[in-house]
Design brief:
alpha+beta; Creatine Amidinohydrolase; 2 domains; three-stranded antiparallel beta sheet; disordered N terminus; disordered C terminus; Pept_M24A_MAP1; zinc ion binding; Methionine aminopeptidase; metalloaminopeptidase activity
């Protein structure tokens, strides 16, 4: 509320609630330049009592402002998307918006040249092969020929996303990002897979701030302090490559930076366990643990998925704990991991456009995604960043401190048997960069000497690891050996 020093300027006004002489003004109304008559109150108590009804004044003013800003766009054929992309309207749909963002008009559908090979939904918006395929229930093992096509496609998808990232800055609309994605995809001989997929109206997804996923590129200009996720999928030579990243727009607050950093780490930690024999459900355990340790939550409505000649197929990859994903990883499988992490609660809602998923509490959300190939010994990130890939904005370079490249060791060198959840014990102990610290040396020794046997008693094994970490933290380097399949110190 405005301070008492403003009282003289509003002494002739009456309280909007009780009509007593007003002494205060609503600061939000002042910011919105609303008439003083509806912004004045006698006391803080009266203002608080009127808040539930008074705040609707702000919403109406904001919607009116958006309508005024967009009137020229409407006259040029830009319309609001409704009914999951199957209809348009010149009026902003009514909705109880959960955060500051609201729908903006979208431009007309972009054209794909006739010579580009297209998926079956390109014309009428309805996939026909995908929903009826046996691969919705059986995880496909790709042939060498399929794998090679996927490598080509995923490299194109990476280059397209990088092109989009280079134009992100305050003042750029998400529709402009979509134009870059569309044109870069076409130039590479590919089709933008999202375009007309179940009537999705654009060539990529752009999810800003509280939007979790499937945001439709529109006329809104990115603002300083936003975060924006760009999700790209390319169809090339009959197969799909899918990835996304979240970027900073200008100067972003620390809470948003930490949200994006944690989300990136969730994906990295999940990828680190991928190899033959690992259960798909373990991915959710890894992601959920890291997110909750940072005070964040994991979206449950949307999951990773199998990918290849089909855009979406088995397996289903939930990112939350205690999920019921079925099956184990095998060499030759391809799928995405794409955790969506929220600053507040995990629940979501969907906008009237039928696509845009937003946080139910209006707090921000971030996401990262890669398409992966399970190899005989581990994993190949098909959509991996290139040396030329731009950073995420704001001069930020993400590093997982535990896996920082030090002393010639790489991240993969530090990864233990991913099927054993006991490695979370190490999260309880302070660590140094790289593998030079005492706790890291214990970690590395245990991993490479294969000292953790499946025959060990779980309680003894966990207790032994915890003991070794404590001793290493207190006394420096600790030699490790195994006796009777239990961990101990000589």
């Amino acid at each position: 509320m405005a301070s008492e020093s403003d009282a003289s300027s509003i002494a002739t006004l009456s309280c909007a609630r009780c009509e007593k002489p007003a002494h205060l003004q609503c600061p939000k109304c002042i910011d919105l330049k609303l008439p003083r008559e509806q912004a004045s109150f006698c006391t803080q108590e009266c203002f608080k009592a009127a808040w539930s009804s008074h705040k609707s004044v702000h919403v109406k003013a904001q919607l009116s402002s958006i309508g005024d800003q967009n009137s020229d766009l409407i006259s040029q054929g830009w319309l609001y998307c409704v009914k999951k992309g199957q209809a348009r309207t010149p009026k902003l749909p009514h909705f109880d918006w959960t955060g500051p963002l609201k729908q903006y008009p979208i431009s007309t559908k972009r054209v794909v040249p006739a010579e580009i090979e297209k998926p079956d939904w390109a014309i009428d918006g309805t996939p026909k092969v995908e929903p009826n395929s046996d691969l919705q229930h059986v995880v496909e093992i790709k042939t060498p020929e399929q794998i090679q096509r996927m490598r080509e496609t995923c490299k194109i998808a990476r280059e397209v996303l990088d092109a989009a990232a280079r134009v992100i800055r305050p003042g750029v609309t998400t529709d402009e990002i979509d134009r870059v994605v569309h044109e870069a995809t076409i130039a590479a001989g590919g089709y933008p897979s999202p375009l007309n997929y179940y009537f999705f109206p654009k060539s990529c997804c752009t999810s800003v701030n509280e939007v979790i996923c499937h945001g439709i590129p529109d006329a809104r200009k990115l603002e300083d302090g936003d975060i924006v996720n760009v999700d790209v999928t390319v169809c090339y030579k009959g197969c799909h490559g899918d990835l996304n990243e979240t970027y900073f727009v200008g100067n972003v607050d620390e809470a948003s930076r930490q949200l994006v950093k944690c989300t990136y780490e969730c994906l990295e930690k999940a990828i680190a366990i991928v190899k033959p024999g690992v259960r798909f459900r373990e991915i959710g355990e890894i992601v959920n643990r890291h997110a909750t340790m940072s005070g964040l939550s994991v979206v449950r409505s949307y999951c990773g998925h199998g990918i290849g000649d089909l855009f979406h197929c088995a397996p289903n990859i939930p990112h939350y704990a205690r999920n019921k994903a079925v099956g184990v990883m095998k060499a030759g499988q391809t799928f995405t991991i794409e955790p969506m992490i929220n600053a507040g609660g995990w629940r979501d809602r969907t906008w009237p456009d039928g696509w845009t998923a937003v946080t139910a509490d209006g707090k921000r959300s971030a996401q990262f995604e890669h398409t992966l190939l399970v190899t005989e010994t581990g994993v190949e990130v098909l959509t991996a960043r290139l040396p030329s890939s731009p950073d995420f904005g704001g001069d930020v370079v993400f590093k997982d401190e535990l896996f920082d490249y030090v002393g010639g060791f790489e991240k993969r060198d530090m990864c233990m048997d991913p099927d054993l959840m006991i490695w979370s014990i190490f999260d309880d102990f302070p660590k140094e960069n790289g593998v030079s610290g005492p706790v890291e040396k214990v970690w590395y020794k245990l991993a490479h000497e294969d000292l953790v046997s499946v025959r060990a008693i779980s309680e003894d094994r966990d207790s032994g690891i915890r003991q070794l970490c404590n001793e290493a933290l207190i006394g420096g380097e600790v030699d490790v050996y195994i006796q009777d399949f239990h961990l101990s110190k000589p």
